[in-house]
Design brief:
By secondary structure, the chain is α/β, with parallel strands linked by helices. It contains 6 helices and 6 strands, in the order αβαβαβαααβββ.
Length: about 190
């Protein structure tokens, strides 16, 4: 595994690695990542899809996250998966419970908010709900880790940009642009 070598080089030459991306085998060096303060951006359940992901396991995120001082991040580079990172985190919580590792929903949410901000070096500005920090907020209809939960309201820069109960506060998709309204159809 080259990551251990990269961590050694980081120390020897005095630079900082913030995050290993696509870290499908991060569980193997979770203790070193935590010790060095390096984050791991990981998929919830992508493993074995190509040779360099062969040793990936579904418990990768939980095994990294359970290390004291760790920085686990749930990520996706899939255009659909990125829209449902809350459900990706839920899969990791379920996989953790299957092997006896338990996380609260609050802890799991850090995989989506606090830790990415830490990775980017902007935790002092965003990533947690604290006075003086920037935050975009979603109010959910229920448990944000449930596939049945919907976004009720979304706030960006303090303004409501989405409200499920108010059609005037619902954006138009690219697909709908240029489509005649029902009243325009003849």
């Amino acid at each position: 595994m080259i990551w251990g070598t990269q961590l050694d080089m980081m120390k020897e030459f005095g630079y900082k690695i913030a995050t290993f991306h696509h870290a499908v085998e991060a569980y193997k060096i979770a203790d070193r990542l935590a010790e060095e303060g390096v984050c791991a951006a990981m998929w919830a359940d992508w493993w074995g899809f190509k040779m360099e992901a062969y040793d990936g396991i579904r418990e990768n995120i939980p095994f990294v996250a359970k290390e004291k001082g760790s920085c686990a991040i749930v990520h996706s580079d899939d255009e659909t998966g990125i829209q449902r990172l809350n459900q990706e985190a839920a899969k990791s919580v379920a996989d953790a419970r299957k092997v006896g590792v338990n996380f609260t929903e609050q802890e799991a949410w850090t995989w989506l908010s606090r830790n990415p901000a830490k990775s980017l070096g902007i935790l002092d500005k965003t990533g947690t709900l604290e006075v003086g920090k920037n935050a975009d907020v979603v109010l959910w209809s229920g448990d944000p880790f449930s596939v049945y939960t919907k976004a009720d309201m979304t706030f960006v820069d303090g303004a409501v940009i989405w409200d499920r109960a108010d059609k005037s506060r619902q954006g138009v998709t690219d697909f709908e642009l240029g489509q005649p309204s029902q009243g325009d159809a003849k």
